[in-house]
Amino acid sequence: MAGSKRKKHLGLLLLLLAMIVLLGVYFWLVKYNDKKDTQDTATEETKAIVSLDTSTIESIYFKNPSLEMTLTLNSKGVWEESQDSAFPVNQTYAANMQNAFADITPTSTLTEGIDDLSAFGLDNPEITATASTSDGKETTVMIGNETPFGGEYYAALAGSNEVYVIGTSFYSYFHYTRTDLTAVETIPAVTAENVTKLSVTAKEGKDFEVVYDEDSPYDYSGFSNYIIHKPYAIPVAADNDSMTTLFGNYASLSFSSCADYNATDLSKYGLEEPAYTVSLDYYEEQTAEADSTDSSTDTATDTDATDTDTTDSTDTANTVKVNKSLTLLIGATDEDGNYYAKTSDSNAVNILDSATVEKLTAIDAYSNTYKYVNLISIEAVDSIDITAGGATHTLTIERETTTEDGKDTTTAVYNADKKTVEEDVFKKFYQVLIAPKTEREIPEADLTKGEKETPVMTITYHLNTSDTPFVVEFKPYDDSYYIVNTNGTEYFLMDLRNAASITDGLKELLQ
Question: What whole-number distance in Å separates Cα of residue 23 and Cα of residue 307?
């Protein structure tokens, strides 16, 4: 009897265990199927609605609130506007449109209750874009309203009743304006150290011009390679370092946009009579064939350089200097305060931002001058006459060169008023003598004031490099400055304490 009960209990236990196992299998199958359904749904939702081989796209039509245009790919692989092949299409933006059709994958799909497309802005799409491929097929994508949470847009395909939610990329690639799609003309890059001439002509105001000339007679010191010709009536030496900094403003110029790619009426942009004309001469170093030693005209063209490029006959080895020039016309300002501008050999009118124009045209000539009044190498000096206080003192350097074992040796004797002085004492005074710098320009109203003044001090250099003496005069101006007269030219003022230092140093030398 007891054994029978134990068997009964065991059977119930086994039955219970079997039921638990079956329930476990059931719930696992339910969970598995739910997971599979979820994966299938996700796959359905993330499936691309457009996936074209972009290499087969031959034309792209698009329409947005500001522009309707059809782009076609020509035989050279360049996108053109179908109605105007001369229109300079921005190839980067055109490629963006082309690549946008490679993969359009929605984040979600709406398939039910879509009776009125106006709720999504698709009855009158903000953007319609059609890609036509080489097999004759067309794919049209319509973009409507932005979704309520932002960052995504409603979209539909032509011939489909489904509404998709897609990201912003496609929208942005087809929201270009005509200005956006106009390729902007490039301005040649210029190396500052290679500039040989800069000219800025102003419709109103002073002109500026500086020219590279290492042998110019106006470089009295021999330390400047550039000469400023304007605004001064008589050229003055420029500071080399200042020139490099100034030319750096012209090194990497760029237009921000194109206002008119084929302007026929320049007066609309103030370019018939430009506010400024900026001209730049420079050279590029290019590699030539080893046997190319003759001077010749360079056949390579630069659409932004204005004059014919020529090869400098002084070039050596395999590097040649190709002379180039750039002329930039700057006209009126647009509504944003930026300037209309163009290169002289182009029909395109572009936009140059106001900050750039300021750097190019607002040149302070004085800040670029060579400031030292009479910084002359002592090696070029034979004698110096210093007249001050009614007396003239003469300093001389007597040099003698001897040759021994094929080597030249030069010795020098330094004299002050015919009295021999120690070399270090003489050179100490010479450093004081050549130290003065100009401080500022003479005001325009006072430019002729020095004509009536008697020099406080006159310094005359007799040089072994020139038959013409170099003469500097210091004339009274006010209680702080002297007028500096350099070989008859008076443009600048000097701190009068510099002359006092020379006087004191001369007294010490003559003791």
Answer: 91
Edge-to-edge, what's the strand order for the sheet holding 57-64?
79-81, 67-73, 57-64, 127-133, 138-146, 153-157, 163-166, 108-110
Domain(s) of CATH 2.60.40: residues in the chain: 54-181
**Out of 1.10.357, 2.40.128, 2.60.40, 3.30.160, which CATH number does the structure's domain 54-181 have?**
2.60.40
Locus of tokens 């430019």 = 447
377 alpha-carbon distance from chain centroid: 38
Structure tokens at 56: 């087969």
Give per-10-residue mean pLDDT for the chain (511 aa).
53 62 49 42 64 95 96 95 93 96 92 79 95 95 94 92 92 93 92 95 95 79 85 92 94 93 94 96 83 41 44 62 95 96 94 96 95 91 95 95 85 94 95 95 94 95 91 96 94 95 94 83
Neighbouring C-beta atoms of residue 148, cutoff 10 Å: 6
pTM exceeds 0.70, yes or no: yes
CB distance 369 to 228 below 8 Å:
yes
Condensed to tens digits (0 to 9), the pLDDT of residues 276-304 reads 999 999 999 888 765 544 433 333 333 34
Separation CA 470–CA 477 (nearest Å): 22
Q: Among 277, 311, 315, 281, which Cα is nearest to 212's?
A: 281
Q: What is the DSSP letter of 189?
A: P
d(CA 386, CA 444): 29
In what side-by-side order are the strands of the sheet with 381-388? 419-421, 407-416, 391-404, 381-388, 457-463, 470-476, 481-486, 489-495, 438-441
CB 59 within 8 A of CB 73: yes
Structure tokens at 421: 């002085």
Distance CA 365, CA 315 (A): 32
Any idea which residue has 């110019």 for tokens? Answer: 216
End-to-end Cα spacing for the chain: 148
Q: At what angle do helices 423-433 and 497-510 cross, to 10 degrees?
A: 160
Distance CA 51, CA 43 (A): 16
